[in-house]
Each structure stands twice: as structure tokens, then as C-alpha cells.
């Protein structure tokens, strides 16, 4: 791997992300730079990325930054070999915008271009929000999740099968040998 220039801030992050060969992801889990403070980047609940209050409209730049995003015990950071800068993530850093069933596999696409096959290493989970509405998530990589967009969740519900679980009758979907509950099955009357 080529040496990463020690440029500060966004320029350094972009330079480090560009070092990843091909479409592969940089090995951010192996980098342990000193914490350099925070940077005014916010990933909104709806998947928009803001820098200093202004939306980052360049899709390629958002995708690039998403490749150097890491979740640590103390929060979310953009990480390079030489710096680690905290950012704010309001909910999940990504949004699952599409799902396709291919045989026994559910394949998701995120708003930053990640393709993820649900399964034992990429689990689906559903929380119930304060408003009583389901908040479904997909594990993307190393603790980073995608909120599953409402239309995509509706597609999952259409694919769901009912099973008896210790929590009662549940609707869920299977993918790559794993079964994921989506919520309680409604009583049939």
C-alpha cells in the first residue's frame, strides 16, 4: 500500500480512503492513530451527510468517507492511518434502500453502495421505537448498521413466514441459513 500523505482533516480522510485498492475497503480496523478531536460531520437519520451544517451533495465523496468510517466504544470516527476524528451519527450510519431475494439469500443495497447478504454475520434486527413503530436494522460491517428503509421493510414483511418462537408466533425472514424475526404475527380471526 502506498504511503498516505499526512494531510489534516477532510483532505487527509479522502486521501486515505483513496488508497484502498479497487472497490475494497481500507483496513480501518487495523489502524490505531491518535485521536485528533472531532470534525463537524453529521450523518442524519435519513442518511444525509452534513459538513458544517451543509449537505455533502457529492455522492462519490459520501461513499469515499463511508469507507473510512469506524464504530468504536466511544462513538463513530473517520479513521486514517494517521488521524481519528469523531463524527456524529443520529441513528445508523447507512440506509438499506433495496432488497432482493436470490434463492435462499436476501441481498441488500445501501445508500453508500454497500451490497450485503443477510445471514449469520450480517444479522437483521428490529427494535420498536418510542412511537411504537418498528425500526429495522441490518449489520453491514464491524458494528456499522444500516437502517432498513420503510419500503424495503414492507418488502421483507411481504416475504415473511410465521414461526413459533419462545416469544410466541413471530413473522420473520430467512437468509443464508439464518432466520430473523421481524415482529409478532397478528392473531388470525
List the helices and strands and how they pair.
Blueprint: H1 9-17, E1 35-43, E2 49-51, E3 54-55, H2 59-66, E4 69-72, E5 75-79, E6 84-89, E7 94-102, E8 105-110, E9 115-117, E10 124-128, E11 134-141, E12 144-148, H3 150-159, E13 161-165, E14 168-175, E15 178-184
What does this structure look like?
The chain is mainly beta and 189 residues long. It folds into two domains: 9-89, duf1285 like fold; 94-177, duf1285 protein fold (Roll). Helix content is 14%, strand content 45%. The protein has helices at 9-17, 59-66, 150-159; strands spanning 35-43, 49-51, 54-55, 69-72, 75-79, 84-89, 94-102, 105-110, 115-117, 124-128, 134-141, 144-148, 161-165, 168-175, 178-184. The strands form three sheets. It has a six-stranded mixed beta sheet. Strands 9-8-7-12-11-10 form a six-stranded mixed beta sheet. Strands 13-14-15 form a three-stranded antiparallel beta sheet, covered by helices on one side. It is elongated and about 50 Å long. Residues 1-7 have low confidence and may be disordered.
Amino acid at each position: 500500500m502506498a504511503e498516505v500523505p499526512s494531510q489534516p482533516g477532510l483532505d487527509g480522510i479522502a486521501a486515505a480512503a483513496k488508497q484502498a485498492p479497487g472497490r475494497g475497503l481500507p483496513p480501518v480496523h487495523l489502524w490505531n492513530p491518535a485521536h485528533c478531536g472531532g470534525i463537524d460531520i453529521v450523518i442524519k437519520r435519513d442518511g444525509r451527510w452534513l459538513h458544517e451544517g451543509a449537505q455533502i451533495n457529492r455522492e462519490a465523496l459520501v461513499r469515499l468517507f463511508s469507507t473510512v468510517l469506524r464504530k468504536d466504544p466511544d462513538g463513530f470516527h473517520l479513521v486514517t492511518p494517521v488521524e481519528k476524528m469523531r463524527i456524529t451519527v443520529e441513528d445508523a450510519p447507512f440506509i438499506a434502500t433495496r432488497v432482493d431475494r436470490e434463492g435462499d439469500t436476501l441481498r441488500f443495497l445501501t445508500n453508500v453502495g454497500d451490497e450485503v447478504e443477510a445471514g449469520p454475520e450480517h444479522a437483521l434486527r428490529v427494535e420498536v421505537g418510542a412511537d411504537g413503530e418498528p425500526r429495522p436494522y441490518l449489520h453491514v460491517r464491524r458494528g456499522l448498521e444500516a437502517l432498513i428503509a420503510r419500503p424495503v421493510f414492507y418488502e421483507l414483511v411481504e416475504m415473511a413466514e410465521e414461526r413459533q418462537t419462545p416469544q410466541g408466533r413471530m413473522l420473520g425472514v430467512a437468509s443464508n441459513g439464518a432466520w430473523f424475526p421481524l415482529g409478532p404475527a397478528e392473531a388470525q380471526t
